[in-house]
Give the backbone structure.
Amino acid sequence: MSRVAKNPIVLPAGVEVTLGLNEVSVKGPLGTMKQVLCHEVLVTQEGQELLCKATNESAKAVAMSGTIRALIANNVLGVSKGFERKLSLVGVGYRAQASGDTLNLSLGFSHPVAYKVPDGVAVSTPTQTEVVLKSSSKQQVGQVAAEIRAFRRPEPYKGKGVRYAEEVVKLKETKKK
């Protein structure tokens, strides 16, 4: 059996779970999220805990039980606390400004970059060189952060570009004469 699926999901106060035939709905203070289940995984609720078990001992069923458990745990954490991703802009003249659902970026191009943030993700810019993304979906906040980073990845010689706040860019040594 999957070692991940053996751990129960503890439901915090204020989070409600509804088990359907082939989906689990999680409702909390930050919204509602649904997770479609694989037919080889059985999810049961015992008090304030959720358990994921494989219906048979095939390799796919065992693997999917751990995957479904991790996805439901992320949904529970998302509707109770939410997820946050920070980006920093490194470079002379690189700035960001959030206005409504649009993020305006100046990244050294001849034109400004306007990125429309999808619904469900909140964007803020505490300073001109910091971007903070918040959402109840871990997948969605990570995807938006990756799309913003893709506009100007950190280059390896000076480190200029858009990087994750905790990212360390290893700089290359320049060519010597």
Summary: The mean pLDDT is 93. Residues 88 and 130 are 5 Å apart (CA to CA). The chain has two domains: 3-80, 83-164. The chain has three helices and 13 strands.
